[in-house]
């Protein structure tokens, strides 16, 4: 194993992070470091992403909520009782062993939350963490990595700017890739493909107003670049008209909000729609368009579905 990961490997083998008190202390230290630098972190996120102030705050507080929830799930008394359940003649059916090492390749989108949402559960489960990060001029990664390195034990957390192979770790591990993978996906590889199409379903018994609000927020929030925002909505025909009406009401502000007085040029999608009789434009604006696709099989050839 390469020298930079020797400490990580030793910590994973000796099992120090299996101790629930140790894990809670590490999470507490991480939470304190991020909370004490709330303004700096949010300023960095806003500068890098150009997101709205409310969206920046949501990303920040969701990340801290992940830490709080993970901290609350660790119960030393319960862990001790489960550990000695066999001595009392009881089966320890809930016993779980950590993998050892988790390698995280964080997404560039919503970087702060993406990193914390993968790092914290892995840490709470008793694993050491290695983050494989690319060199970047953005402020958020530099600031966040600096805070994490100062708050966590240096033997359980490491950062690498180079690709990490299995031979470098030389220990049981899981790789979490949040931006897809170019190579083969192995059994210990958790991959999120941000380019994969996302489909939302609205059933006939759904709360139409709530569904419309959630769909519009997901699709048009974060500048419309969220990887898990719905690309296509499949709706039960009985509530289709009601949903379209609700979507128009909810999305008018998003579609019309533009500081430019110049009419934007039509996108390739808009031009394709004009040629496809099976597609109707429900609402169009400078920031997007809502389409009513009558024949999804025919429209799939134009890339609408």
UniProtKB/TrEMBL annotation:
This is Aldehyde dehydrogenase domain-containing protein. Gene3D superfamilies: Aldehyde Dehydrogenase, Chain A, domain 1 (3.40.605.10), Aldehyde Dehydrogenase, Chain A, domain 2 (3.40.309.10). Residues 22-157 form the Aldehyde dehydrogenase domain. GO terms for molecular function: oxidoreductase activity, acting on the aldehyde or oxo group of donors, NAD or NADP as acceptor.
């Amino acid at each position: 194993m390469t020298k930079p990961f020797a400490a990580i490997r030793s910590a994973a083998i000796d099992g120090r992070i299996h101790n629930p008190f140790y894990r809670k202390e590490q999470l507490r230290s991480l939470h304190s470091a991020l909370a004490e630098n709330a303004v700096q972190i949010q300023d960095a996120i806003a500068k890098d992403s150009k997101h709205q102030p409310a969206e920046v705050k949501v990303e920040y507080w969701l990340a801290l909520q992940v830490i709080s929830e993970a901290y609350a799930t660790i119960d030393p008394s319960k862990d001790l009782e489960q550990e000695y359940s066999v001595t009392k003649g009881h089966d320890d059916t809930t016993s779980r062993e950590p993998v050892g090492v988790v390698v995280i390749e964080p997404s560039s989108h919503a970087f702060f939350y993406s990193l914390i949402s993968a790092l914290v559960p892995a840490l709470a489960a008793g694993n050491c963490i290695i983050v494989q990060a690319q060199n970047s001029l953005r402020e958020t990664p530099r600031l966040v990595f600096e805070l994490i390195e100062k708050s966590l034990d240096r033997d359980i957390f490491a950062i690498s700017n180079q690709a990490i192979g299995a031979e470098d770790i030389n220990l049981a591990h899981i790789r979490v890739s949040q931006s897809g993978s170019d190579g083969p996906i192995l059994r210990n590889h958790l991959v999120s493909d941000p380019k994969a199409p996302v489909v939302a379903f609205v059933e006939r018994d759904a709360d139409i107003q709530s569904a419309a609000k959630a769909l519009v927020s997901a699709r048009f929030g974060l500048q419309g670049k969220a990887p898990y925002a719905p690309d296509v909505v499949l709706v039960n025909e009985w509530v289709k008209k009601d949903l379209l009406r609700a979507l128009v009401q909810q999305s008018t502000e998003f579609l019309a909000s533009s500081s430019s007085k110049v009419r934007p040029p039509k996108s390739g999608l808009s031009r394709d729609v004009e040629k496809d009789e099976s597609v109707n434009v429900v609402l169009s604006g400078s920031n997007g368009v809502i389409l009513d696709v009558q024949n999804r099989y025919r429209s799939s050839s134009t890339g609408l579905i």
